[in-house]
Amino acid sequence: MTQPPILQALSGTRPARTPMWLMRQAGRVLPEYRALKQRHSFLELMRSAELSTEVTLMPLRRFAELDAAILFTDLLVPLEAMGMPLDYDPGPVLGWRFEGPGDLDRLAPADPEERLSVLLETARRVKRELRPDQALLGFVGAPFTLGAYAMEGQGSKSWHRLRALAYRDPGLCDALCERLTAAALAFGLALGRAGCDAVQVFDSWAGVVEPGLYRERFGPWLDRLVGGLRDAGTPVIMYCNGARPHLETMLATGADCLGLDWRTDMAAFDAVLPAGLPVQGNLDPCALYGTTDSISREAWRVLRAARGRPHVFNLGHGLEPTTPLEGVEALIDAVRAFDEEEGE
Fold this sequence. Notes:
Radius of gyration: 19 Å
Number of helices: 15
Low-confidence stretches: none
Mean pLDDT: 96
């Protein structure tokens, strides 16, 4: 059987059509999701295999042209599995904050089969519902992003606690990252066993880190995470929010595909990346607030820049909650129109 287009792209082949999915497509902009949120909290949705399966499939039912489902969950569930209670107010808030060596033993080894069984059941259910040409994607947090949340306990603008620790006590920083990497890898491997065709590694806050520090202190743990997934046969998309300063570190992971944020000029990256390396991205999410013509123009700019290599079309970050559905529809139409023109 022919692989789904997105898996063809991740394997280094240019498929007949540009594979496409959108970060945060499961939820947020969909009226059917908002209706469900009127009856259930975010945690309730995550902790029910039936409900999280429904949310994961919602965008594919509305937009049949999407090539992948992305599991509905949260980046921080491995931290919860390690013993850091997770709540939302409205953003993620952890029950305690990592502050020093004495907290290392509070981080239990993550057992995804036991602690994340609902999510794994969701993956199995979703996989059964997908068309043969659609893939199922899972995702895990990178060591820096997981560690940043573990040390802040909630969202932050600067994420300075982990950055400071990396300078002040590299040994403790490594000890924390070792535990987080093991948890993320166990989680990612379990997702693969449950039916996920590929895993995206999110380093959502890498852009705040000085490039040399990121490469030296966090790069080796990123290499271990990506390498462990790939050794198990799971294709990996490496996404950094703030990718430009960290290109060297991203390449060193050996990831199958590099996901680029919208601040990155696709044409500029294309000129320096190894020939044939797949890329993903990277339309500015705010472009979807434009007109049909402007959305098409911006989408085609990205598509033209990446046309010489395997390309998974996506936004450069997640959909904004107020994104008009008409903008999403116009984007999908624009990508398919580009494919038709290229095929002529």
